[in-house]
Amino acid sequence: MKETILAIDVGNTSIHWAYMKDGDLIGSYNRNKHTELSLLPWEEVKQKDCPVVIAGALLHINEEIERITKEHNIKFIQLDTTKQRIIKNVYQSLGIDRVCNLVGAINSIKILNSPIIVFDFGTASTITACDKDHNFLGGVIHTGCEIELQALASKTLSLPHVQLAKEQKITKLDPLSKDTENAILHGVIVGQVALVESYLKLFKEMTKSEPKTVFTGGNASIVSRFYKTPDLYDPHLTIKGIYYCYKADYLARCILK
Q1: SS3 call for 143
Q2: Which CATH number fits domain 4-78: 2.40.40.20, 3.40.50.450, 3.30.420.40, 1.10.1780.10?
């Protein structure tokens, strides 16, 4: 399938989008606020005759994108967890973004002879696993870095709000921070690294396997700086998974014709 699509990942706090063709990004990878849907290149999409394929659990955003595509006479496709054809044995309320993460990982790792675990460090930190035969195994959901920083500031009377961007100055995690701001920032990052390490230890004990680890999400670059290199780090994993979910459905429909 050589068709170009506009893939849109509707996240909890923003939308991410890019043109995709043959499994590769065409042009730039973009991020907009939920209130900035009108800024997407709808006229260009119409001229290119690209279908818009979205993955997202925010109904009001999905509906607004569908309304805009109808206004521009653009083909609109919304991926569905239970109707996609790649990850098996999923539950109905499983986020389609987590499914797309697994699909993106499956298509990015050349030799798949063990389970895959995708760590997505965004607004929430999600961990999602499947086996080598694409059977969904399960996962967990944890608070993300920004939520933890906001919670400490809003739920306590004395702790300040610390900007996550200040992590760029950190070259090494310090378990013995000497001021409040650094203690908060290091504590949040240590918590995310510990989440990875603890989860992998439990997973390996339970499954008796050595899984492939994949990092993605807006804060993945932070965690990967302080954790041993994952098997794959791809900030565009969800967008790629959207493309491959669409491709699988497209090929299935061609076979049925």
Answers
A1: strand
A2: 3.30.420.40
